[in-house]
Design a protein that fits this description.
Blueprint lengths: L9 H15 L9 H6 L2 H28 L6 E2 L4 E2 L5 E2 L1 H25 L9 H25 L5 E2 L1 H9 L2
Length: 169
């Protein structure tokens, strides 16, 4: 019964959940099997997997935009954010999105390893799980804002080039 609250009065348990729900606005509920929460961290692995899935999709989208912006494609124009070393402009926002995606994927690996390394009710790696999940959430939240405002919303089509590609296909 380590940390499960199984010794607490049933009414007390439900009242505490109700108060926390009211304070946070989060639809919390009592676990059907509280011992599972102390033995396993699969809920964190699942959440991290969803964040990784988002990161994978963001990486694919940002890579597609970088290619569509580059020669010989030049189908779109990304807003000029940083001059490159030559005539080109670096696609720094899609590059930043790719780096964040890689970091979120690395965090997911760390979370999976930490969750698998728990023994019985001793999950000594919970601090790294928490830090990695919070970092992934923060990075994705901030990255999505920047990606939308400084990249997606500023994309312009190169209609002439798109028409040429269409005519030649």
């Amino acid at each position: 019964a380590i940390g499960t609250g199984s010794n607490a009065n049933r009414l007390y348990t439900f009242r505490v959940i109700e108060i926390i729900r009211d304070l946070t606005g989060i639809g919390l509920a009592k676990s059907e099997y509280p011992i599972d929460l102390t033995q396993n961290n699969d809920v964190f692995v699942e959440v991290s997997g969803l964040l990784k899935s988002l990161a994978v999709n963001l990486m694919k989208i940002s890579t597609d935009l970088r290619i569509m912006n580059s020669k010989p494609f030049s189908e779109i124009h990304l807003a000029d954010m940083q001059a490159g070393s030559t005539w080109k402009v670096n696609p720094v926002i899609p590059e930043m999105v790719t780096q964040v995606a890689i970091k979120v994927m690395a965090n997911d690996s760390a979370i999976s390893i930490c969750a698998a390394s728990g023994n019985f009710e001793l999950n000594a790696f919970m601090p790294l799980i928490a830090e990695s999940i919070l970092e992934s959430l923060t990075l994705l939240k901030e990255t999505l804002k920047i990606f939308r405002t400084k990249c997606i919303n500023t994309i312009t089509a190169n209609e002439e080039c798109c028409k040429k590609h269409l005519d030649n296909s």
